[in-house]
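Exercise 7.
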Amino acid sequence: MVNFAAMIDVTRIVRPLFAARVNDVKRRYRDVESVQRHQFQWLLRHGAATRYGQAAGLNAIDSYQRWRETVPVTPYPELRPWVMRMVNGEKDVLWPGRCSRFAQSSGTSDGKSKYIPITPQSLQKQHYAGGFDSVAWYLSLYPESHLFGGKALILGGSFANELTLPRGVKVGDLSAHLIDRINPLVNLVRVPSKRVALMKDWEEKLPQLVQASINQDITSISGVPSWFLTVLRKVIERAGATSIHDVWPRLEVFFHGGIAFEPYREQYQAITHSSKMRYLETYNASEGFFAVQSSLDSHAMLLLLDAGCFYEFVPLDECDDHLPEHAVPAWEVEEGRVYALVITACNGLWRYPLGDTVRIESVNPLKITIAGRTKHYINAFGEEVMVHNTDAALALACAEHHCQPLNYTAAPVYTTQGAKGYHQWLIEWATPPADHEAFAESLDRALQAENSDYQAKRYKGIFLDCLQVVDASPGLFDRWLASTGKLGGQRKVPRLSNDRHIIDALLQYI
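Solution. The predicted structure, written as C-alpha coordinates, is:
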Protein backbone atom coordinates (compact mmCIF):
# COMPACT_ATOMS: atom_id res chain seq x y z
CA MET A 1 0.00 0.00 0.00
CA VAL A 2 0.99 3.65 -0.48
CA ASN A 3 2.81 5.47 2.30
CA PHE A 4 0.37 8.39 2.44
CA ALA A 5 2.42 10.28 5.00
CA ALA A 6 5.30 10.54 2.50
CA MET A 7 3.24 12.48 -0.04
CA ILE A 8 3.42 16.27 0.01
CA ASP A 9 0.14 18.18 0.28
CA VAL A 10 0.43 21.37 -1.77
CA THR A 11 -3.24 22.33 -1.51
CA ARG A 12 -2.53 25.24 0.82
CA ILE A 13 0.18 26.54 -1.52
CA VAL A 14 -1.94 26.53 -4.69
CA ARG A 15 -5.25 27.53 -3.10
CA PRO A 16 -4.69 31.32 -3.56
CA LEU A 17 -4.35 30.83 -7.32
CA PHE A 18 -7.76 29.16 -7.51
CA ALA A 19 -9.32 31.59 -5.04
CA ALA A 20 -8.30 34.51 -7.25
CA ARG A 21 -10.24 32.99 -10.14
CA VAL A 22 -13.38 32.53 -8.04
CA ASN A 23 -13.20 36.10 -6.78
CA ASP A 24 -12.72 37.40 -10.32
CA VAL A 25 -15.74 35.43 -11.56
CA LYS A 26 -17.94 36.62 -8.70
CA ARG A 27 -17.07 40.22 -9.57
CA ARG A 28 -17.28 40.13 -13.39
CA TYR A 29 -20.18 37.71 -13.80
CA ARG A 30 -22.52 40.20 -12.15
CA ASP A 31 -22.70 41.84 -15.58
CA VAL A 32 -23.72 39.00 -17.88
CA GLU A 33 -24.26 41.29 -20.84
CA SER A 34 -20.84 42.93 -20.68
CA VAL A 35 -18.93 39.64 -20.47
CA GLN A 36 -20.95 37.94 -23.21
CA ARG A 37 -20.83 40.92 -25.58
CA HIS A 38 -17.06 40.90 -25.22
CA GLN A 39 -16.97 37.20 -26.17
CA PHE A 40 -19.31 37.90 -29.09
CA GLN A 41 -17.11 40.64 -30.54
CA TRP A 42 -13.93 38.62 -29.99
CA LEU A 43 -15.39 35.66 -31.86
CA LEU A 44 -16.60 37.84 -34.74
CA ARG A 45 -13.17 39.44 -35.13
CA HIS A 46 -11.49 36.03 -35.35
CA GLY A 47 -14.12 34.53 -37.64
CA ALA A 48 -14.58 37.33 -40.16
CA ALA A 49 -11.60 36.39 -42.35
CA THR A 50 -12.30 32.64 -42.39
CA ARG A 51 -13.93 30.90 -45.33
CA TYR A 52 -17.11 30.46 -43.32
CA GLY A 53 -16.97 34.04 -42.05
CA GLN A 54 -16.76 35.38 -45.57
CA ALA A 55 -19.68 33.21 -46.71
CA ALA A 56 -21.81 34.22 -43.73
CA GLY A 57 -20.90 37.91 -43.91
CA LEU A 58 -19.57 38.07 -40.36
CA ASN A 59 -17.71 41.32 -41.05
CA ALA A 60 -21.08 43.03 -41.57
CA ILE A 61 -22.53 41.95 -38.20
CA ASP A 62 -22.86 45.08 -36.07
CA SER A 63 -25.44 43.94 -33.50
CA TYR A 64 -26.96 40.85 -31.98
CA GLN A 65 -30.22 41.64 -33.76
CA ARG A 66 -28.51 41.54 -37.15
CA TRP A 67 -26.72 38.33 -36.16
CA ARG A 68 -30.01 36.68 -35.17
CA GLU A 69 -31.70 37.71 -38.40
CA THR A 70 -28.96 36.81 -40.90
CA VAL A 71 -26.65 34.06 -39.59
CA PRO A 72 -28.39 30.65 -39.66
CA VAL A 73 -28.32 28.08 -36.91
CA THR A 74 -26.16 25.31 -38.36
CA PRO A 75 -26.69 21.69 -37.21
CA TYR A 76 -23.80 19.30 -37.72
CA PRO A 77 -24.97 17.69 -40.98
CA GLU A 78 -24.80 21.16 -42.57
CA LEU A 79 -21.49 21.93 -40.88
CA ARG A 80 -19.90 18.61 -41.86
CA PRO A 81 -18.56 19.72 -45.29
CA TRP A 82 -16.75 22.63 -43.64
CA VAL A 83 -15.28 20.39 -40.94
CA MET A 84 -14.09 17.80 -43.46
CA ARG A 85 -12.21 20.52 -45.32
CA MET A 86 -10.40 21.18 -42.02
CA VAL A 87 -9.76 17.46 -41.46
CA ASN A 88 -8.21 17.32 -44.94
CA GLY A 89 -5.74 20.03 -44.04
CA GLU A 90 -7.31 23.24 -45.37
CA LYS A 91 -6.65 26.28 -43.17
CA ASP A 92 -8.82 29.27 -42.23
CA VAL A 93 -12.06 27.35 -42.80
CA LEU A 94 -14.16 27.74 -39.64
CA TRP A 95 -11.44 29.26 -37.45
CA PRO A 96 -8.12 30.98 -38.26
CA GLY A 97 -5.21 28.66 -38.95
CA ARG A 98 -4.96 24.95 -39.56
CA CYS A 99 -6.70 22.57 -37.14
CA SER A 100 -5.02 19.21 -36.51
CA ARG A 101 -7.22 17.80 -33.71
CA PHE A 102 -10.83 16.68 -33.83
CA ALA A 103 -13.01 15.19 -31.11
CA GLN A 104 -14.95 12.18 -32.32
CA SER A 105 -18.48 12.32 -30.94
CA SER A 106 -21.71 10.38 -31.33
CA GLY A 107 -23.33 10.38 -34.74
CA THR A 108 -26.17 12.55 -36.01
CA SER A 109 -29.28 11.70 -37.98
CA ASP A 110 -27.15 10.93 -41.04
CA GLY A 111 -25.63 8.03 -39.11
CA LYS A 112 -22.02 9.23 -39.20
CA SER A 113 -19.68 10.19 -36.39
CA LYS A 114 -19.17 13.86 -35.69
CA TYR A 115 -15.71 15.40 -35.77
CA ILE A 116 -15.60 18.49 -33.58
CA PRO A 117 -12.62 20.81 -34.21
CA ILE A 118 -10.28 21.29 -31.27
CA THR A 119 -8.31 24.48 -31.82
CA PRO A 120 -5.51 25.71 -29.55
CA GLN A 121 -7.88 28.43 -28.35
CA SER A 122 -10.63 25.95 -27.48
CA LEU A 123 -8.19 23.76 -25.56
CA GLN A 124 -7.02 26.64 -23.41
CA LYS A 125 -10.09 28.89 -23.10
CA GLN A 126 -12.70 26.12 -22.91
CA HIS A 127 -11.58 22.65 -21.91
CA TYR A 128 -8.56 23.26 -19.67
CA ALA A 129 -10.04 26.47 -18.28
CA GLY A 130 -13.25 24.63 -17.43
CA GLY A 131 -11.31 21.99 -15.54
CA PHE A 132 -9.45 24.73 -13.67
CA ASP A 133 -12.77 26.38 -12.76
CA SER A 134 -14.14 23.09 -11.46
CA VAL A 135 -11.24 22.75 -9.05
CA ALA A 136 -11.46 26.44 -8.13
CA TRP A 137 -15.12 26.22 -7.15
CA TYR A 138 -14.59 22.96 -5.30
CA LEU A 139 -11.81 24.45 -3.19
CA SER A 140 -13.99 27.49 -2.56
CA LEU A 141 -16.85 25.31 -1.34
CA TYR A 142 -14.62 23.08 0.80
CA PRO A 143 -11.89 25.18 2.48
CA GLU A 144 -10.69 22.16 4.48
CA SER A 145 -9.94 20.15 1.32
CA HIS A 146 -6.65 18.33 0.82
CA LEU A 147 -7.28 17.78 -2.88
CA PHE A 148 -3.62 18.20 -3.88
CA GLY A 149 -2.39 15.90 -1.15
CA GLY A 150 -2.87 12.93 -3.48
CA LYS A 151 -3.54 12.08 -7.10
CA ALA A 152 -6.44 12.39 -9.52
CA LEU A 153 -7.81 9.37 -11.37
CA ILE A 154 -9.06 10.51 -14.75
CA LEU A 155 -10.57 8.15 -17.31
CA GLY A 156 -9.38 8.75 -20.85
CA GLY A 157 -10.61 7.75 -24.27
CA SER A 158 -8.55 6.80 -27.29
CA PHE A 159 -7.55 7.79 -30.80
CA ALA A 160 -9.65 5.16 -32.56
CA ASN A 161 -9.66 6.81 -35.97
CA GLU A 162 -12.18 5.92 -38.65
CA LEU A 163 -10.50 7.92 -41.39
CA THR A 164 -7.40 7.87 -43.48
CA LEU A 165 -5.99 11.10 -42.12
CA PRO A 166 -3.43 13.60 -43.39
CA ARG A 167 -0.10 13.55 -41.59
CA GLY A 168 -0.30 15.16 -38.16
CA VAL A 169 -4.12 15.05 -37.86
CA LYS A 170 -5.61 13.22 -34.86
CA VAL A 171 -9.23 12.15 -34.39
CA GLY A 172 -10.49 10.54 -31.19
CA ASP A 173 -12.35 11.01 -27.92
CA LEU A 174 -12.10 14.47 -26.40
CA SER A 175 -10.51 13.05 -23.25
CA ALA A 176 -7.77 11.47 -25.35
CA HIS A 177 -6.84 14.87 -26.78
CA LEU A 178 -6.91 16.47 -23.33
CA ILE A 179 -4.59 13.86 -21.87
CA ASP A 180 -2.35 13.90 -24.94
CA ARG A 181 -1.86 17.68 -24.71
CA ILE A 182 -1.96 18.14 -20.95
CA ASN A 183 0.75 20.12 -19.16
CA PRO A 184 3.46 17.62 -18.15
CA LEU A 185 3.32 18.97 -14.59
CA VAL A 186 -0.25 17.70 -14.28
CA ASN A 187 0.99 14.17 -14.96
CA LEU A 188 2.75 14.32 -11.59
CA VAL A 189 -0.64 14.33 -9.85
CA ARG A 190 -2.64 12.20 -12.31
CA VAL A 191 -3.10 8.50 -12.94
CA PRO A 192 -2.99 6.35 -15.01
CA SER A 193 -0.06 6.87 -17.34
CA LYS A 194 -0.71 8.28 -20.78
CA ARG A 195 -0.06 4.85 -22.31
CA VAL A 196 -2.82 3.22 -20.25
CA ALA A 197 -5.18 6.19 -20.45
CA LEU A 198 -5.13 6.17 -24.26
CA MET A 199 -5.55 2.41 -24.78
CA LYS A 200 -8.32 1.58 -27.26
CA ASP A 201 -9.54 -1.83 -26.06
CA TRP A 202 -11.58 -1.41 -22.86
CA GLU A 203 -11.38 -5.10 -22.03
CA GLU A 204 -7.59 -4.76 -21.97
CA LYS A 205 -7.65 -1.26 -20.53
CA LEU A 206 -9.88 -1.87 -17.49
CA PRO A 207 -7.56 -4.26 -15.61
CA GLN A 208 -4.61 -1.97 -16.31
CA LEU A 209 -6.59 1.00 -14.94
CA VAL A 210 -7.21 -1.00 -11.79
CA GLN A 211 -3.56 -2.02 -11.51
CA ALA A 212 -2.33 1.53 -12.12
CA SER A 213 -4.56 3.09 -9.47
CA ILE A 214 -5.13 0.54 -6.73
CA ASN A 215 -1.96 1.39 -4.78
CA GLN A 216 -2.10 5.13 -5.38
CA ASP A 217 -3.27 7.81 -2.95
CA ILE A 218 -6.32 8.92 -4.95
CA THR A 219 -8.05 12.07 -3.72
CA SER A 220 -10.26 12.84 -6.72
CA ILE A 221 -11.89 11.05 -9.63
CA SER A 222 -13.23 12.58 -12.84
CA GLY A 223 -15.43 11.05 -15.52
CA VAL A 224 -18.82 9.73 -16.57
CA PRO A 225 -20.77 8.14 -13.66
CA SER A 226 -21.78 4.94 -15.46
CA TRP A 227 -18.24 4.08 -16.59
CA PHE A 228 -16.54 5.08 -13.36
CA LEU A 229 -18.88 2.84 -11.39
CA THR A 230 -17.46 -0.16 -13.24
CA VAL A 231 -13.88 0.92 -12.55
CA LEU A 232 -14.49 1.52 -8.84
CA ARG A 233 -16.18 -1.86 -8.40
CA LYS A 234 -13.25 -3.58 -10.08
CA VAL A 235 -10.81 -1.77 -7.76
CA ILE A 236 -12.84 -2.81 -4.70
CA GLU A 237 -13.02 -6.39 -5.94
CA ARG A 238 -9.29 -6.55 -6.65
CA ALA A 239 -8.48 -5.13 -3.20
CA GLY A 240 -10.88 -7.45 -1.40
CA ALA A 241 -12.54 -4.39 0.14
CA THR A 242 -16.15 -3.37 0.75
CA SER A 243 -15.81 0.36 0.09
CA ILE A 244 -13.62 2.41 -2.22
CA HIS A 245 -12.52 4.36 0.85
CA ASP A 246 -10.99 1.17 2.21
CA VAL A 247 -8.69 1.38 -0.80
CA TRP A 248 -8.34 5.15 -1.12
CA PRO A 249 -9.05 6.57 2.35
CA ARG A 250 -8.41 10.16 1.26
CA LEU A 251 -10.70 10.15 -1.78
CA GLU A 252 -12.89 13.22 -1.36
CA VAL A 253 -14.57 14.26 -4.62
CA PHE A 254 -16.04 12.98 -7.87
CA PHE A 255 -16.08 15.58 -10.66
CA HIS A 256 -18.80 14.12 -12.87
CA GLY A 257 -20.61 15.00 -16.08
CA GLY A 258 -21.85 13.58 -19.35
CA ILE A 259 -25.02 11.96 -18.00
CA ALA A 260 -27.35 12.60 -15.07
CA PHE A 261 -25.86 11.48 -11.77
CA GLU A 262 -29.08 11.00 -9.80
CA PRO A 263 -29.90 7.47 -11.07
CA TYR A 264 -26.43 6.38 -9.90
CA ARG A 265 -26.30 8.21 -6.55
CA GLU A 266 -27.48 5.26 -4.47
CA GLN A 267 -24.95 2.95 -6.09
CA TYR A 268 -22.11 5.35 -5.32
CA GLN A 269 -23.33 5.70 -1.75
CA ALA A 270 -23.20 1.90 -1.43
CA ILE A 271 -19.48 1.75 -2.25
CA THR A 272 -18.26 4.94 -0.53
CA HIS A 273 -18.23 6.41 2.96
CA SER A 274 -20.83 9.17 2.66
CA SER A 275 -19.10 11.30 5.29
CA LYS A 276 -16.00 11.49 3.10
CA MET A 277 -17.40 11.67 -0.42
CA ARG A 278 -18.45 14.81 -2.28
CA TYR A 279 -19.77 15.31 -5.79
CA LEU A 280 -19.39 18.26 -8.13
CA GLU A 281 -21.35 18.40 -11.38
CA THR A 282 -19.89 19.81 -14.59
CA TYR A 283 -21.31 20.51 -18.03
CA ASN A 284 -18.59 19.55 -20.46
CA ALA A 285 -18.84 18.04 -23.91
CA SER A 286 -16.79 17.54 -27.05
CA GLU A 287 -17.98 20.98 -28.15
CA GLY A 288 -16.74 22.79 -25.03
CA PHE A 289 -16.83 23.20 -21.26
CA PHE A 290 -19.87 25.28 -20.42
CA ALA A 291 -20.80 25.25 -16.73
CA VAL A 292 -19.83 24.04 -13.27
CA GLN A 293 -21.64 23.60 -9.97
CA SER A 294 -20.74 26.56 -7.77
CA SER A 295 -22.80 26.13 -4.59
CA LEU A 296 -23.68 23.43 -2.07
CA ASP A 297 -27.39 24.20 -1.77
CA SER A 298 -28.18 23.43 -5.42
CA HIS A 299 -26.99 21.27 -8.30
CA ALA A 300 -27.50 24.25 -10.62
CA MET A 301 -24.36 25.08 -12.58
CA LEU A 302 -22.80 28.48 -13.17
CA LEU A 303 -22.58 29.23 -16.89
CA LEU A 304 -18.96 30.02 -17.84
CA LEU A 305 -19.41 33.36 -19.54
CA ASP A 306 -15.78 34.08 -20.46
CA ALA A 307 -14.77 30.68 -21.84
CA GLY A 308 -14.48 31.59 -25.53
CA CYS A 309 -18.16 30.89 -26.09
CA PHE A 310 -21.23 32.98 -26.92
CA TYR A 311 -24.50 31.42 -25.79
CA GLU A 312 -27.95 31.70 -27.29
CA PHE A 313 -31.17 30.29 -25.91
CA VAL A 314 -33.90 29.15 -28.30
CA PRO A 315 -37.54 28.47 -27.37
CA LEU A 316 -38.29 24.78 -27.75
CA ASP A 317 -40.92 25.33 -30.43
CA GLU A 318 -38.25 27.02 -32.60
CA CYS A 319 -35.36 24.63 -31.97
CA ASP A 320 -35.53 23.26 -35.53
CA ASP A 321 -35.65 26.72 -37.17
CA HIS A 322 -32.62 28.00 -39.05
CA LEU A 323 -33.39 31.59 -38.04
CA PRO A 324 -35.26 31.25 -34.72
CA GLU A 325 -37.16 34.50 -34.33
CA HIS A 326 -37.28 34.48 -30.55
CA ALA A 327 -33.75 33.32 -29.76
CA VAL A 328 -32.25 35.39 -26.95
CA PRO A 329 -28.72 36.03 -25.67
CA ALA A 330 -27.66 35.15 -22.14
CA TRP A 331 -28.62 38.55 -20.74
CA GLU A 332 -32.27 38.20 -21.84
CA VAL A 333 -33.17 34.73 -20.57
CA GLU A 334 -36.15 34.19 -18.24
CA GLU A 335 -35.76 32.38 -14.95
CA GLY A 336 -37.56 29.03 -14.82
CA ARG A 337 -37.81 28.67 -18.59
CA VAL A 338 -36.41 25.75 -20.61
CA TYR A 339 -34.48 26.57 -23.80
CA ALA A 340 -32.50 24.75 -26.46
CA LEU A 341 -28.86 25.81 -26.17
CA VAL A 342 -26.99 27.17 -29.21
CA ILE A 343 -23.31 28.09 -29.07
CA THR A 344 -20.76 30.04 -31.06
CA ALA A 345 -17.27 29.13 -29.92
CA CYS A 346 -13.55 29.41 -30.60
CA ASN A 347 -13.43 25.94 -32.12
CA GLY A 348 -15.26 27.23 -35.21
CA LEU A 349 -18.81 26.22 -34.30
CA TRP A 350 -21.04 29.08 -35.47
CA ARG A 351 -24.60 29.14 -34.11
CA TYR A 352 -24.28 25.44 -33.44
CA PRO A 353 -27.19 23.65 -31.70
CA LEU A 354 -25.79 21.36 -29.01
CA GLY A 355 -28.96 19.30 -28.90
CA ASP A 356 -29.26 19.99 -25.16
CA THR A 357 -32.10 21.75 -23.39
CA VAL A 358 -31.35 23.75 -20.26
CA ARG A 359 -33.49 25.25 -17.53
CA ILE A 360 -32.60 28.72 -16.27
CA GLU A 361 -32.36 28.39 -12.49
CA SER A 362 -31.24 31.97 -11.84
CA VAL A 363 -30.30 34.96 -13.99
CA ASN A 364 -27.82 36.74 -11.70
CA PRO A 365 -25.64 34.81 -11.41
CA LEU A 366 -26.67 32.92 -14.52
CA LYS A 367 -27.13 29.28 -13.50
CA ILE A 368 -28.61 26.37 -15.42
CA THR A 369 -29.52 22.73 -15.09
CA ILE A 370 -29.60 20.30 -18.00
CA ALA A 371 -33.23 19.48 -18.80
CA GLY A 372 -32.61 16.91 -21.54
CA ARG A 373 -32.01 16.64 -25.26
CA THR A 374 -33.89 18.30 -28.08
CA LYS A 375 -33.94 14.98 -29.89
CA HIS A 376 -33.95 12.64 -26.89
CA TYR A 377 -37.53 12.84 -25.74
CA ILE A 378 -40.83 11.02 -26.11
CA ASN A 379 -43.72 12.99 -27.53
CA ALA A 380 -45.57 10.28 -29.43
CA PHE A 381 -48.85 11.07 -27.68
CA GLY A 382 -48.43 14.76 -26.79
CA GLU A 383 -46.81 13.92 -23.46
CA GLU A 384 -43.48 15.77 -24.02
CA VAL A 385 -41.48 13.58 -21.66
CA MET A 386 -37.85 14.68 -21.37
CA VAL A 387 -34.76 13.06 -19.89
CA HIS A 388 -34.84 15.06 -16.66
CA ASN A 389 -38.38 13.71 -16.10
CA THR A 390 -37.37 10.08 -16.56
CA ASP A 391 -34.15 10.41 -14.56
CA ALA A 392 -36.05 11.83 -11.61
CA ALA A 393 -38.89 9.29 -11.84
CA LEU A 394 -36.46 6.37 -12.03
CA ALA A 395 -34.56 7.59 -8.98
CA LEU A 396 -37.80 7.85 -6.97
CA ALA A 397 -39.08 4.44 -8.00
CA CYS A 398 -35.74 2.76 -7.31
CA ALA A 399 -35.58 4.33 -3.86
CA GLU A 400 -39.06 3.01 -3.11
CA HIS A 401 -38.24 -0.53 -4.24
CA HIS A 402 -34.60 -0.66 -3.04
CA CYS A 403 -33.25 -1.48 -6.48
CA GLN A 404 -30.38 -0.07 -8.52
CA PRO A 405 -30.29 0.52 -12.30
CA LEU A 406 -27.16 0.37 -14.44
CA ASN A 407 -28.58 1.72 -17.68
CA TYR A 408 -31.88 2.36 -19.39
CA THR A 409 -33.59 3.56 -22.52
CA ALA A 410 -37.27 4.12 -23.26
CA ALA A 411 -39.46 4.52 -26.33
CA PRO A 412 -43.15 4.56 -27.24
CA VAL A 413 -45.23 1.56 -28.20
CA TYR A 414 -47.76 3.04 -30.56
CA THR A 415 -51.52 2.74 -30.37
CA THR A 416 -53.09 -0.01 -32.48
CA GLN A 417 -56.68 -0.73 -33.37
CA GLY A 418 -57.02 -3.07 -30.44
CA ALA A 419 -54.75 -1.51 -27.81
CA LYS A 420 -53.73 1.83 -26.37
CA GLY A 421 -50.17 3.04 -26.61
CA TYR A 422 -47.66 3.10 -23.74
CA HIS A 423 -44.03 3.71 -22.93
CA GLN A 424 -41.65 0.77 -22.93
CA TRP A 425 -38.56 0.90 -20.73
CA LEU A 426 -35.54 -1.36 -21.15
CA ILE A 427 -33.52 -1.41 -17.92
CA GLU A 428 -30.28 -3.18 -17.05
CA TRP A 429 -30.05 -3.76 -13.29
CA ALA A 430 -27.29 -3.75 -10.73
CA THR A 431 -29.94 -4.82 -8.21
CA PRO A 432 -33.37 -5.65 -9.67
CA PRO A 433 -36.64 -4.96 -7.89
CA ALA A 434 -38.27 -7.84 -6.02
CA ASP A 435 -41.62 -7.19 -7.69
CA HIS A 436 -41.25 -6.03 -11.29
CA GLU A 437 -44.93 -5.32 -11.81
CA ALA A 438 -45.12 -3.18 -8.67
CA PHE A 439 -41.96 -1.37 -9.73
CA ALA A 440 -43.45 -0.53 -13.14
CA GLU A 441 -46.53 0.91 -11.43
CA SER A 442 -44.36 3.00 -9.09
CA LEU A 443 -42.27 4.24 -12.00
CA ASP A 444 -45.43 5.18 -13.87
CA ARG A 445 -46.79 7.13 -10.89
CA ALA A 446 -43.46 8.89 -10.39
CA LEU A 447 -43.34 9.89 -14.06
CA GLN A 448 -46.86 11.30 -13.77
CA ALA A 449 -45.74 13.34 -10.78
CA GLU A 450 -42.76 14.66 -12.73
CA ASN A 451 -44.61 15.50 -15.96
CA SER A 452 -48.14 16.93 -16.00
CA ASP A 453 -48.58 16.24 -19.74
CA TYR A 454 -47.82 12.56 -19.22
CA GLN A 455 -50.18 12.58 -16.23
CA ALA A 456 -52.94 14.04 -18.39
CA LYS A 457 -52.45 11.38 -21.06
CA ARG A 458 -52.47 8.67 -18.38
CA TYR A 459 -55.66 9.94 -16.70
CA LYS A 460 -57.79 6.85 -15.99
CA GLY A 461 -55.94 5.05 -18.78
CA ILE A 462 -58.02 6.80 -21.41
CA PHE A 463 -55.18 7.66 -23.78
CA LEU A 464 -52.15 5.76 -22.50
CA ASP A 465 -51.66 2.51 -20.62
CA CYS A 466 -49.22 2.06 -17.78
CA LEU A 467 -45.61 1.90 -18.91
CA GLN A 468 -43.92 -1.46 -19.35
CA VAL A 469 -40.50 -2.42 -17.99
CA VAL A 470 -38.38 -5.01 -19.81
CA ASP A 471 -35.30 -6.43 -18.08
CA ALA A 472 -32.08 -6.18 -20.07
CA SER A 473 -29.61 -9.04 -19.77
CA PRO A 474 -26.29 -8.18 -18.09
CA GLY A 475 -23.99 -6.28 -20.43
CA LEU A 476 -26.70 -5.73 -23.05
CA PHE A 477 -26.07 -2.02 -23.52
CA ASP A 478 -22.30 -2.52 -23.77
CA ARG A 479 -22.76 -5.25 -26.38
CA TRP A 480 -25.02 -3.00 -28.40
CA LEU A 481 -22.62 -0.05 -28.16
CA ALA A 482 -19.76 -2.32 -29.23
CA SER A 483 -21.79 -3.43 -32.25
CA THR A 484 -22.16 0.21 -33.29
CA GLY A 485 -18.45 0.90 -32.82
CA LYS A 486 -19.16 3.34 -30.00
CA LEU A 487 -18.10 1.43 -26.89
CA GLY A 488 -15.88 3.60 -24.73
CA GLY A 489 -15.65 5.91 -21.77
CA GLN A 490 -17.53 8.80 -23.37
CA ARG A 491 -20.18 6.81 -25.25
CA LYS A 492 -23.73 6.87 -23.96
CA VAL A 493 -26.99 5.11 -24.78
CA PRO A 494 -29.75 7.60 -25.66
CA ARG A 495 -32.17 7.65 -22.74
CA LEU A 496 -35.27 8.48 -24.76
CA SER A 497 -36.28 8.10 -28.38
CA ASN A 498 -39.44 9.24 -30.09
CA ASP A 499 -39.34 6.16 -32.32
CA ARG A 500 -38.42 2.51 -31.79
CA HIS A 501 -35.23 2.41 -33.85
CA ILE A 502 -32.85 2.08 -30.88
CA ILE A 503 -34.95 0.02 -28.49
CA ASP A 504 -35.86 -2.51 -31.16
CA ALA A 505 -32.18 -2.96 -32.01
CA LEU A 506 -31.45 -3.55 -28.32
CA LEU A 507 -34.36 -5.96 -27.89
CA GLN A 508 -32.88 -8.15 -30.61
CA TYR A 509 -30.00 -8.95 -28.22
CA ILE A 510 -32.34 -10.41 -25.57
